[in-house]
């Protein structure tokens, strides 16, 4: 059973950047899709981006052009690079792979 541990969240001003990491143990990320989701206070969890098993990235319209997914298979770690952050990006961010979820990491964007 793969375990996912996220890191990299924090407080940033609007226009700033953060890079989230999702490190896997107990299983490889290689050849599996990796999804990123977020949940803002009082809202449902929403899909943000995915890296398909073939490594093709797909993004929600709300983050397209600002967020970038990547992975380092040697480190068994996936990344979500977030640029040009907006206050509406404030949420807890989660990674998901092979049916397992990370614990989430808080991202807060101040105006």
Describe the structure in your own words:
The structure is a single chain. The strands form 2 sheets. Strands 2, 4, 5, 6, 9, 10 and 11 form a 7-stranded mixed sheet that branches. Strands 1-3-8-7 form a 4-stranded antiparallel sheet, with no helix packed on it. The protein has strands spanning 3-7, 10-13, 18-25, 34-39, 46-51, 57-59, 67-72, 77-82, 91-97, 100-101, 105-110. By secondary structure, the chain is mainly β.
Brief description of this entry?
With 111 residues, this protein is mainly β. It contains no helices and 11 strands.
Q: Which key terms come to mind for this protein?
A:
mainly beta, 11 strands, 53% strand, 111 residues, seven-stranded mixed sheet
